[in-house]
Design brief:
Shape: globular
Radius of gyration: 23 Å
Helix content: 40-55%
Number of strands: 8
Number of domains: 2
Distance between the termini: 39 Å
Length: 249
C-alpha cells in the first residue's frame, strides 16, 4: 500500500480495523503528514467517546409505527444533480501548505530582513507543535488499540463528561473530555495521577479539544484527578478536584 492511499484508511485505523502491515504504514505516514495525523487524532477520540456511549432501548411502539409509515410515506426522489469534484489527497494538501509557509518565509527574509527571521522562527515553532501532535496521535491510537485497554467514565463539576482509557501493559493513559466550560484568562485544566489519595502526581494539561495522552508513567496510580490551575500548571493541586476517577486495575 502506497502512502498516497493512506488518507482513505484513517477511519479504519481509528477503529482498529486494519491489518498489521497497514497499521505500520499509517503510523509511519502520520509522522510526516500533519493533515492525516490530525484526522486520526480526531477520529480516535470520537471512536473512544462512541465506545462509552450508553444505548437506550427503543419503545415497544416504535416497530408498528415504522411499519405503518413504510406503507403510507412516499420515498423521496433520487437526487440526480451531480457535481464532479476531484479532491486533493490530504497528504498533498499538507505538503502544498508546508511549501507555501516556507516560500512565504523566504520572501519575507528577502524583503524585510529581521522581521522575516521572526516569521521563520514562528514557523519552526508551529512545525514543532505539529510534530508533537502527530506523536500524540500515534500514542493515543496505540493505547486505544491495546489488548488490555480499560475504560472508565465520569462527570465533572459543571456538567462536563470525561473518559479515561488506560493500558497497564503500555503504562499509558488517554484522557478525553467533552463539555468543559471555558476558563478565565490565566487558568487551565490540569490532570493528576492519584496514588490512593496520598499523593497527586502531575499528568499534563488538557488542550482545547479535550483529548490528551497523559504525561508520565501510570505506575501504581489508582485514580485520575482534574483541577483548575494557573496557566502552565502547578507542581501540586491548588484547588479542589473537579473529579476523581478510579482507574481500572
Amino acid at each position: 500500500m502506497s502512502d498516497e492511499h493512506v488518507h482513505v484508511l484513517t477511519g479504519a485505523y481509528a477503529l482498529n480495523a486494519v491489518g498489521d502491515e497497514e497499521r505500520e504504514t499509517i503510523e509511519r505516514h502520520v509522522q510526516d503528514c500533519m493533515a492525516c495525523a490530525e484526522e486520526v487524532r480526531e477520529l480516535t477520540a470520537t471512536a473512544a467517546r462512541l465506545g462509552t456511549a450508553v444505548a437506550a432501548a427503543a419503545p415497544p411502539s416504535m416497530k408498528p409505527q415504522v411499519i405503518t409509515w413504510i406503507k403510507t410515506v412516499r420515498q423521496l426522489p433520487p437526487d440526480v444533480e451531480a457535481v464532479s469534484v476531484v479532491p486533493r489527497p490530504a497528504s498533498a494538501r499538507a505538503r502544498y501548505a508546508r511549501r507555501l509557509v516556507l516560500a512565504a518565509c523566504v520572501a519575507a527574509a528577502t524583503a524585510f530582513g529581521g522581521t522575516a527571521a521572526w516569521q521563520f522562527q514562528d514557523a519552526q515553532r508551529a512545525e514543532q507543535r505539529a510534530q508533537q501532535a502527530r506523536q500524540e496521535t500515534t500514542d493515543m491510537a496505540r493505547v486505544l488499540a491495546a489488548s488490555d485497554a480499560r475504560t472508565v467514565s465520569g462527570s465533572l463539576k459543571g456538567g462536563a463528561r470525561a473518559t479515561v482509557i488506560v493500558s497497564r501493559g503500555q503504562n499509558t493513559a488517554v484522557f478525553l473530555a467533552s463539555g468543559l466550560p471555558d476558563l478565565a484568562d490565566g487558568k487551565t485544566y490540569q490532570l493528576w495521577f492519584d496514588n490512593d489519595g496520598r499523593t497527586m502526581k502531575p499528568a499534563g494539561l488538557i488542550g482545547d479539544d479535550g483529548a490528551v495522552v497523559m504525561e508520565g508513567d501510570i505506575g501504581k496510580a489508582t485514580g485520575v484527578g482534574v483541577t483548575v490551575e494557573p496557566a502552565g500548571g502547578s507542581p501540586q493541586p491548588t484547588t479542589t478536584p473537579l473529579a476523581l476517577m478510579t482507574l481500572p486495575a
